[in-house]
User: Which sequence fits this backbone?
């Protein structure tokens, strides 16, 4: 007898179907959708964890899933029937990559499309998924996961920067779920023991992903916060900031603000989104730290007194974070990179006016696209005679000298520290303003 599915199984998959449709059909970033999706919020913790895993897996492996489905469905459902195509993607992800039993993956997918008002397509969904269940390994065949799951424009861009082999290593790293990285205020050795974490050479703690972060020891007290090891590096490039006035531009969600405040800086956190700044304020309060919060467009901001240092974590395509945000691969395109590059140039130009003579600017993006990283720095150095590059040295990046590029800037790649679980792709440059 086929085991009976309970209501929560179907509710979880209904939420996943709605969220996947919002992402792929409407271009809605997954994290933002999860934060405001009422049905997802009402699920039990176990079901929310399943939905997150299912969506991340579907998006991370979407190229392979599409390749399999293209061989089984002559005319994919579209228009008003598009939800059935998403149900097929979710079902295929469960069968091919999550090891979900057929009775759960197939039967709930059939019930899902029926509950969506697409009962006329339940026969198609049933037949396709049962064939995937029978022939999954053969259907995947002698595939190239790294290539299939990377959009062509990204593959071409990365190949130009890092060659075919380097691009393949980056793309392969994106297929591995990211571990949980934590920045700790003090006593890393103690908290590594409490959290069953490894201390990375740069000081970040790393532990296995999974579970509710808020339930971990030290969270409520604000002794640490979630921050990828690469994301923690730009703020450290400012050196000793104790007592200095530091502007953190585009500050939300606030990891770098917390780093700077914990290091003794007088921080002003600036972001255009008051809603996102509330999260920064909440995290500061939890950690017992303080910073001035300013909700404004940083490119137009005019404070009364220049700062000793400015950190810009500029808005970017986020292509260095596909390990954590696989939806970005399918939501972004070259036009987005060009548009964001204009914003980055404006922020850099403004930073020159915000920092005092002799002060430091660190510019960072979580992008692998050269237009958003080194090309921005070369352009501002050509335009602005008051600026000079301050190259990094191995002492700035303990245990990670390979992340210093030929120009002396920071360049991390997802393929770095692969044996430790990888890292996000970040670019950062350190500049000093002359008189």
Assistant:
């Amino acid at each position: 007898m086929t085991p009976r599915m309970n209501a929560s199984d179907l509710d979880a998959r209904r939420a996943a179907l709605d969220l996947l449709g919002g992402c792929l059909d409407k271009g809605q970033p997954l994290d933002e959708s999860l934060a405001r999706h009422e049905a997802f919020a009402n699920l039990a913790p176990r079901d929310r964890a399943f939905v997150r895993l299912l969506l991340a897996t579907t998006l991370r492996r979407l190229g392979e899933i599409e390749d399999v489905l293209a061989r089984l469905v002559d005319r994919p459902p579209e228009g008003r029937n598009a939800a059935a195509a998403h149900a097929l993607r979710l079902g295929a992800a469960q069968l091919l990559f999550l090891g979900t039993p057929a009775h759960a993956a197939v039967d709930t997918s059939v019930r899902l499309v029926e509950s969506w008002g697409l009962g006329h397509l339940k026969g198609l969904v049933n037949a396709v998924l049962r064939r995937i269940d029978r022939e999954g390994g053969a259907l995947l065949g002698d595939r190239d996961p790294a290539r299939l799951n990377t959009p062509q424009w990204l593959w071409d861009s990365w190949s130009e920067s890092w060659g075919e082999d380097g691009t393949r290593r980056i793309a392969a790293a994106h297929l591995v779920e990211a571990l949980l990285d934590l920045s700790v205020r003090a006593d890393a050795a103690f908290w590594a023991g409490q959290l069953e974490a490894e201390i990375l050479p740069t000081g970040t703690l790393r532990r296995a992903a999974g579970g509710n972060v808020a339930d971990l020891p030290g969270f409520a007290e604000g002794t640490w916060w979630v921050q990828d090891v690469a994301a923690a590096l730009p703020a450290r490039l400012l050196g000793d900031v104790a007592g200095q006035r530091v502007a953190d531009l585009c500050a939300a969600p606030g990891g770098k603000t917390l780093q700077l405040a914990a290091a003794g800086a007088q921080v002003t956190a600036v972001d255009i989104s008051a809603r996102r700044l509330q999260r920064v304020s909440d995290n500061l309060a939890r950690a017992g730290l303080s910073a001035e919060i300013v909700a404004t467009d940083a490119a137009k901001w005019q404070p009364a007194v220049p700062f000793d240092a400015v950190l810009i974590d500029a808005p970017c395509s986020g292509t260095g974070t596909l390990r954590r945000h696989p939806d970005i691969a399918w939501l972004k395109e070259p036009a987005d990179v060009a548009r964001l590059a204009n914003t980055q140039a404006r922020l850099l130009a403004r930073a020159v006016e915000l920092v005092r003579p002799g002060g430091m600017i660190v510019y960072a993006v979580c992008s692998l696209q050269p237009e958003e990283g080194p090309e921005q720095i070369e352009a501002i150095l050509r335009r602005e005679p008051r600026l000079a590059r301050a190259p990094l040295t191995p002492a700035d990046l303990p245990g990670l000298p390979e992340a210093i590029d030929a120009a002396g800037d920071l360049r991390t790649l997802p393929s770095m520290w692969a044996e430790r679980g990888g890292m996000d792709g970040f670019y950062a440059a350190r500049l000093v303003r002359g008189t």
Q: What stands out?
A: The CA atoms of residues 106 and 130 lie 7 Å apart. The chain has a mean pLDDT of 94. The chain has two domains: 7-143, 228-433.
